[in-house]
Structure formats: structure tokens, C-alpha cells
# Entry
Amino acid sequence: MDRFEFQLAMLQKGAEELEKKIANFSTILQQLKTAAITIWVALIGWAFASKIDALVPLGYIIIFGFWFLEATYWKVQLYYMQRTHALTEFLNNESALDESFNSRSIPSGLVHPLGSLKTLKMPSLWRALCAPSIYIFYTFLLAVNSIVWLITFKTAL
# Structure
């Protein structure tokens, strides 16, 4: 096996590895949402069962904590998705592919192990916090927590 064939094999391995990583992060993100809602509901249930209204504001800490945690994982997943996009662009660029086969060399950063591409940077935390797949869920939880808190104020009066 010559160097170019080795690079091709590593390119394929890298593409498979990216696919696995993205799928694993999707699973983690779903599990974080499940854990957030489970812990939040348990807290609200505990607050009503024990009649300790001061527990309801702790829901905000749970919501913001999981929001931050999910955004952190999401930005890493987005980075891997950008890497997949760069790999796909290379494979769909006929002239770049022809040049690669003629020179018998794959451009740096596209083969496994998954080193960083100089053109890609990690997305910002702010971008991750504002991603619709994240902020809609947690904004909804914040709104429900606020309504529950208002209800506890009203019943206390």
C-alpha cells in the first residue's frame, strides 16, 4: 500500500469516525434534555408536595445549568458537522479531487486522525446558546417555571 492509498483509507476511516461522533453527540443532547426535564419536574413536584414555595426559583438554576451544558456539547457537535461539511465539499469538488488523484495526495486536515482544519474554528458559546434546537426548549422551561412561581406567589397571598 503506497502513501496515497493509505491516505484514502484514512480518509474513509475519518469520515466514519465523524459520523459516529455526530450521532453520539445527538444522543447526548437528547439525554441532557431528558435529564433537565426530569430533574426540573422532580423539583417542582417536591416544592408542591412539601409546600416549600422557595424551592421553585431553584428551577432557574437547573434550567440555566442544563442550557449551558447542552450548548457546550452542541458547539462541539457543530464543529464535527463543519468538518463533515469540509470533507463533503472536498469530495464533491471535481477539480480538487482530480488534483488530489493526480498529485496522489489528500489535503492536510482531511484524513484520520481528525486534526483540526485551519479554516474551521469552534463555534462560540453564544451561538450555541441561541441555537433554536436549544433555546426554544429552555425558554419554554423558563416560561413554565415563571408561571409556576407566580402561582406559588398567588396561593401564598
